[in-house]
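Limitations

Structures in this collection are predictions, not experimental determinations, and the ligand pose is part of the prediction. Treat each record accordingly. The example that follows, with nicotinamide-adenine-dinucleotide as the small molecule, is included so readers can see exactly what is and is not provided: the inputs are given verbatim, and the output is the predicted complex.
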Amino acid sequence: MEKVALVTGSSRGIGRAIARRLSEDGYAVCINYIERRDKAEELAAEIAAAGGRAFCFQADVSDRAAVDAMAAEVKRRFGPVSLLVSNAGIAGQMLIQDVGDEAWNRYFAVNVEGFRNCVQAVLPDMIHAKQGSIVSISSIWGLRGASCEAVYSATKHAIIGLTRSLAMELAPSGIRVNCVAPGVIDTDMVQVLGQETLDELARMTPLGRLGRPEDIAEAAAFIGGDRASFITGQVLTVDGGFSG
Ligand code: NAD
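Predicted complex:
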């Protein structure tokens, strides 16, 4: 199998850093985006300028048909996906009393069904090849509770449950499935918290700073790649010691 990576939600933030990192590791990369075509194309151009191969594909991961079309296009251009990084996600803070059906369903559709859709889209070729690697991106809030982020936390717990179960189910097919659980990472997602809270979170982190997208990219590249060939079903927490 050629080294071909599909990274969802990779026009910005953590996904962007992962796509860039995997390209450095020799993967041809599909940069999935939902809105920021300009940012996705900018990254593809950057990768091409560095001698790598990348293309952009717009798809809402909660849309199964769109995800299937994306996987088919990756295959047409580069060959079957050998590494899926399911990174796309949405987050937000609200009291549980304020969580209506629409918000509940959207969180699960993107964070959980999106993961499932991507797995199902790339799996037939991985099973056929009897190899492949899948990395999900959960959160430290997928390992413990998060006040005012109950739905987000529930989706991130579900991602870990799926990851561990798929690791068992797919191991006989030579496919590894692992998870990276980031702590607080300095991206657009956490800007809503405000600078004061972010400074406080950095102070609460034993290593004394917020994480950078590159910190997560390094972990995803490791656990998704061949150096981790005997690792499956694991959750790699990357949080500067926050969850100690
Ligand atoms: P971000 O908001 O910058 O990036 C999320 C990306 O997902 C964006 O590019 C967005 O467009 C994309 N996306 C959202 N909905 C999508 C959909 N339906 N289909 C396709 N793409 C979609 O945030 P980030 O911090 O880079 O987050 C990346 C992942 O890391 C998320 O799963 C998030 O839950 C997780 N995470 C982030 C932090 C953090 O502190 N930043 C901590 C723990 C986990």
